[in-house]
Design brief:
Blueprint lengths: L11 H14 L3 E2 L26 H15 L6 E12 L5 E10 L5 H17 L4 E7 L3 H17 L9 H6 L1 H11 L16 H17 L4 E2 L13 E8 L6 E9 L1 H8 L5 E9 L16 E5 L2 H16 L5 E2 L6 H11 L3 E5 L1 H6 L1 E6 L5 E5 L3 H7 L1 H7 L2
Parallel strand pairs: 1-2, 4-5, 9-10, 9-11
Antiparallel strand pairs: 2-3, 3-8, 4-6, 6-7, 7-8, 11-12, 12-13
Helix pairs in contact: 1-3, 2-8, 3-7, 4-6, 7-9
Length: about 400
């Protein structure tokens, strides 16, 4: 949970308003603006039986259900933000408010990378200077089955040292039990099986793709076997972000998330990829957020090739800091899909980065009406865009 005393915000609404502006810069849409969604209390219909390994999984079930409903009959990838208006409590039993960011329909590692970058930007903008990202992968169902089988063996060996209140769970929910042992600091956990050791080659490559995005962008991270979750909910990537207390040096988790394909597929009744990050803030003072007025961007950023895609997040963050809004579709891999999306935005200029530009540290600025273009160094891009009234007059906020 983000403590307001560690931020520049006097109340919860200040933090949430800033977080929403950053999320919407990257293309996230409020869930209540999407069709086919009615925000209402959970129905009395009995939910499918599930095991929960983490305390936040029950509350995320409702959000997941709403987001999958919003994505039904939608062919595009959806980027959604949602406020959890029901006051929750963090591990210290302190009331908090959460903002959740969901990406539905994107199966590749860029989805997780984008959520992590946006969550990190939200925390940095709030004034959280020291942040730690812990990340793990539990792979697919087959990989996690082998992992959980060995967890069961591990728990049986150490059953006498496990709290009597937790022992019954060890037989029925080994993964949830191990998660509890990590939270309680059980001395045997360093010898517990680690999920990353059970990944297949394809799963390992997918995980390293995500880590490469983070390294190119410059987000520090640590591999942590203690970041776990229910297999009924999660697959592949799980992560947790924490601030560092300046006085004690202790870590205070404020965000968590990962890929919840199993749960999304269950609600959608078909294979559906989805990822989420949930950011918690201390509940204090005003919580109502006034909608921000944003001008429509007249720029569209498109990438071609993996090298350009890896550097795309850095380009967008540079433009965000410069106050220059831009459309993008990082969730699309092919240039044709991006150009089709760009046509719908009616932008006046395209920002194009291919392999050559990524290696040279440049971007092509192309005028849509004439197809004339110029290569501009990334370090000079914000100033270049500001100098041209045809771009700056409609795109700067």
């Amino acid at each position: 949970m983000i403590r307001l005393k560690d931020t520049r915000h006097p109340n919860t609404s200040g933090f949430l308003g800033s977080a929403i502006r950053i999320a919407e810069y990257y293309g996230f849409t409020p869930i209540d603006k999407l069709q086919r969604v009615r925000l209402q209390a959970p129905s009395s219909k009995r939910e499918p039986e599930m095991s929960f390994a983490r305390r936040d999984e029950r509350s995320l079930m409702l959000s997941a259900k709403l987001c999958i409903s919003a994505a039904r009959n939608q062919n595009d990838v959806l980027l959604i933000w949602r406020l959890n208006k029901n006051a929750a409590r963090d591990r210290s039993n302190i009331p908090c408010h959460t903002i959740e960011l969901h990406i539905v329909g994107a199966p590749h590692a860029m989805a997780e990378a984008l959520l992590i970058v946006v969550a990190d930007a939200i925390a940095a903008d709030a004034g959280i200077s020291r942040r730690v990202l812990s990340i793990n992968s539990i792979g697919s169902v087959d990989s996690s089955n082998r992992f959980v089988r060995d967890i069961g063996t591990f728990l049986r060996k150490h059953i006498d040292s496990i709290s009597p209140t937790l022992r019954p769970r060890a037989a029925t929910d080994p993964l949830g039990t191990l998660t509890q042992l990590f939270e309680r600091g059980h001395p045997a956990t360093p010898r517990a099986p680690q999920s990353m050791e059970y990944l297949t080659e394809d799963e390992r490559k997918r995980f390293w793709d995500l880590l490469e995005y983070l390294e190119v962008f410059g987000v520090p991270y640590e591999l942590s076997p203690s970041v776990l979750g229910s297999r009924d909910f999660w697959a592949h990537t799980l992560f947790e972000m924490a601030s560092v207390d300046e006085e004690t040096g202790s870590r205070i988790p404020f965000a968590s998330g990962g890929r919840y394909d199993p749960l999304a597929s269950r609600f959608a009744a078909r294979e559906t990829p989805a990822v989420v990050v949930s950011i918690a803030c201390e509940l204090r003072g005003k919580t109502r957020v006034k909608p921000a007025v944003r001008m429509a961007p007249s720029l569209y950023f498109a990438h071609l090739g993996m090298e350009a895609r890896r550097k795309a997040l850095s380009v967008l963050e540079t433009l965000r800091h410069a106050g220059i809004p831009v459309h993008q579709s990082l969730m699309y891999e092919r240039l044709g899909e991006q150009m089709e999306h760009a046509k719908k935005t009616s932008v006046s200029h395209l920002l194009l980065m291919g392999h050559k530009e990524a290696m040279e540290g440049t971007v092509l600025v192309r005028e849509v009406a004439t197809n004339s273009q110029e290569a501009v160094a990334l370090t000079e891009l914000p100033g270049y865009l500001r100098r041209y009234k045809s771009i700056a007059a409609t795109s700067l906020v």
